[in-house]
Design brief:
The complex is a heterodimer. Helices cover 43% and strands 12% of the residues of chain A. Chain A is α/β, with parallel strands linked by helices. Chain A has a five-stranded mixed sheet, with helices on one face. In chain A, strands 3-2-1-4 form a four-stranded parallel sheet, sandwiched between helices. In chain A, strand 5 and strand 6 form a beta hairpin. In chain A, helix 2 packs parallel to helix 6 and helix 2 crosses helix 9. The N and C termini of chain A lie far apart (57 Å). By secondary structure, chain B is of the alpha+beta class. Chain B has two domains: 60 residues, Arc Repressor Mutant, subunit A, CATH 1.10.10; 78 residues, Glutaredoxin (3-Layer(aba) Sandwich). Chain B has seven helices and four strands. In chain B, strands 2-1-3-4 form a four-stranded mixed sheet, covered by helices on one side. In chain B, strand 3 and strand 4 form a beta hairpin. In chain B, helix 2 packs antiparallel against helix 3 and helix 3 crosses helix 4. Classes of the chains: A alpha/beta, B alpha+beta. Chains A and B meet through strand 3, strand 5, strand 9 and helix 13 of A and helix 2, helix 4 and helix 5 of B. The structure holds flavin mononucleotide (FMN), iron/sulfur cluster and FE2/S2 (inorganic) cluster.
């Protein structure tokens, strides 16, 4: 394999990399220029379909296919929303993309807007990212004064403007329909689907929601072509460069860019430089806290692409890798995540609202040394009641309005099934004491 | 006391009204502005925002209470938001909360007697690679290991 050179983060650490002058000097906006001046929307969609780009927000849905769902004959305005909510625990890549090179992502938004016929796009950014919000507003202002946003961009007849919209602290607003409700000024309660956003999204208009990293890939696809993109990585079904976020008990936590399909143990050992104090790995969460954890044996040689991680019983999700070493208390870790989900449930569906609170209470009892043997199966029961049994071959079961239910149930189930002995040990210790 | 945007914010609001395709969508931006100006969102402020946007105060309240960044009560001058989610917890966030609480003699959720600090625990701040993380007002303080947090806090007046 030839050595991989970073694509999305290639300007990382260069002075001035967030300014438009720097970006334009480094071939910036060539892809957007091409899309706007030389191509029609359908052409851009076909190119992105051929590239094989899959959404980087979590579900891995093919980007070009998603765009294709926007009705061609609609009289309503079409909206693009850039999902910069970045709130899945373990995920911190979009913030880096925004800080080091906001124009790359804005260029991606121009390309996506051209593809779907959007003239007003939004960046929905999590409310805590105040500095990033200002940076994006400044970058957009730079574009407006360079005829890259506004009326007739690049001298064409294509108009586009972008609004940066700050959230206000709510994990569920990362879910695309919760996000749309929030953008409309309401609480972020996910919507029942169908209708899907492509048909009825923001203000009942056709809407595409795409993740920051997904959009950041587009300029490169436009410039270097679908074939080039498709050839990056080990698995042609899931190609491209990927940002892996590695946190937890590793020596060098951080965001690492590597080809799709890079092995999970390779990422931990060679990118993040292994586990602190050279301890053993107990488990790894591969794709943000909603992804069921994998044991030390399960991560060996596991290619980090969408189909491979799914086949291993988890998901690539947002590629938020959290490493748990041999000293981590799995009951505490499980409690920490259950508490997160109880806090973040939007409260709309009874199984999710009640179930997450109940799980947290049971696990809290464990951590206080008051767990009971029958509680272990109770945890599994409650989890199943929220998010159904895990059967990846049958897809989602949907007892709840949005996939948040499964995002709690699956990881909790994995904790208990793979580390049942630790839950039992909590009870045993109590009995002796 | 009725709520009114100060001139520079009122101008910004007018500009936003022109940009957005829909008035109610301005709820979050306007609430942020109101909170920046007033320090927190009182009943009167919320009513004032609702009036500006032509929506019922009850609906506005529903929006306000949904989001963790909107505050119905005054906070200290410095809002210390310690991330407690998994990666930060693994990096020592729990001990840090205890330490800060002891340092200023306050409980999580409380404001110090001199009104300087409010301490809260928050969920993942999207910066897990530099855990543990504390957000103080608008700024992130990352890799707050050992006595680094003390050095940050001692500089705040
Ligand atoms: C509970 C929940 C939280 C989510 N949070 C985020 C998020 O923070 N950022 C994000 O890009 N996508 C998030 N998603 C996925 C979005 O719903 C959506 O699929 C994604 O933004 C689409 O972009 P993509 O096609 O480019 O991946 C979340 C999904 C769920 C169910
Ligand atoms: S599953 Fe949970 S988060 Fe999703 S809509 Fe239902 S209650 Fe809300
Ligand atoms: S867990 Fe603290 S920033 Fe993500």
């Amino acid at each position: 394999m030839t050595a991989f050179k970073p694509i999305l983060t290639r300007h990382l650490g260069q002075p001035g990399s967030s300014t438009i002058d720097y970006y334009l000097l480094n071939e910036g906006y060539r892809g957007a220029r091409k899309a706007v001046l030389e191509m029609d929307g359908a052409g851009v969609i076909d190119l992105v379909k051929a590239s094989g780009l899959q959404g980087r927000g979590g579900a891995g849905f093919p980007t070009g296919v998603k765009w294709g769902f926007i009705p061609k004959d609609t009289r309503k305005p079409v909206y693009l929303i850039n999902n910069a909510d970045e709130s899945e625990p373990g995920t911190f890549k979009d913030r880096l993309l925004i800080n080091h090179n906001p124009h790359q992502m804005i260029e991606g938004m121009i390309i996506a807007s051209k593809a779907i016929g959007c003239h007003l796009a939004f960046i929905y950014i999590r409310g805590e990212f105040v500095k990033e919000t200002r940076l994006l507003e400044a970058a957009i202002e730079e574009c407006r004064s360079n005829n890259i946003l506004g009326k007739g961009i690049f001298g064409s007849d294509f108009d586009l403007d972008i609004i940066v919209h700050r959230g206000a602290g709510a994990y569920i607003c990362g879910e695309e329909t919760g996000l749309i409700e929030s953008l409309e000024g309401k609480r972020g309660w996910p919507r029942i689907k169908p209708p899907f956003p492509a048909i009825e999204g923001y203000l009942s208009s056709p809407t595409v929601v795409n993740n920051v990293e997904t959009l950041a890939n587009l300029p490169h696809i436009l410039v270097h072509g679908a074939k080039w993109f498709h050839s990056i990585g080990a698995n042609p079904e899931s190609p491209g460069p990927k940002l892996y976020c590695i946190s937890g008990r590793v020596k060098k936590p951080g965001v690492y860019e590597a080809p799709m399909g890079t092995h999970l143990d390779d990422l931990i050992e060679n990118y993040a430089r292994g586990v602190i104090d050279d301890r053993l790995i107990k488990a790894v969460i591969p794709g943000g806290s909603s992804a069921p954890l994998l044991t030390a044996e399960e991560i060996v040689g596991l290619p980090m692409d969408f189909p491979s991680v799914k086949a291993a019983g988890s998901m690539l999700g947002s590629a938020g890798i959290i490493v748990l070493d041999e000293t981590v208390d799995m009951v505490q870790a499980c409690y920490n995540l259950a508490r997160f989900y109880a806090h973040e449930s939007c409260g709309q569906c009874t199984p999710c609202r009640e179930g997450t609170t109940w799980l947290t209470k049971i696990l809290e009892r464990f951590t206080a040394g008051r767990g009971r043997m029958e509680d272990i199966d109770l945890i599994l029961d409650v989890a199943d009641n929220i998010g159904g049994l895990i059967d990846f071959s049958k897809g989602s079961f949907g007892k709840t309005i949005c996939p948040f239910g499964e995002a709690v149930a699956w990881p909790v189930r994995a904790f208990v099934e793979k580390f049942r002995h630790e839950f039992e040990a909590y009870i045993a210790t109590e009995a002796v004491a | 006391m009725s709520f009114k945007l100060k001139p520079d914010r009122a101008r910004k609001y007018k500009a936003l009204l022109k940009q957005y395709p829909d008035k109610r969508s301005l709820a979050l931006p306007l609430l942020h502005m109101a909170q920046e100006q007033e320090g927190f969102l009182s009943g009167d402020t919320i009513k004032g925002v609702a009036e500006l946007l032509d929506i019922a105060p009850g609906l506005m309240m529903e929006t306000v209470t949904f989001y963790s960044m909107f505050y119905l009560k005054p906070r200290g001058k410095y809002l210390l938001q310690v991330c407690q989610t998994l990666s930060c917890s693994l990096a020592g966030a729990d001990q840090m909360v205890d330490h800060v609480a002891a340092k200023y003699n306050l409980k999580v959720g409380e404001t110090s007697a001199d009104g300087r600090f409010t301490l809260v625990k928050v969920e993942c701040l999207g910066s897990c690679g530099t855990a543990p993380v504390v957000q103080i007002n608008d700024d992130y303080y990352e890799k707050m290991v050992g006595d680094k947090i003390d050095r940050v806090l001692d500089k705040l007046s």
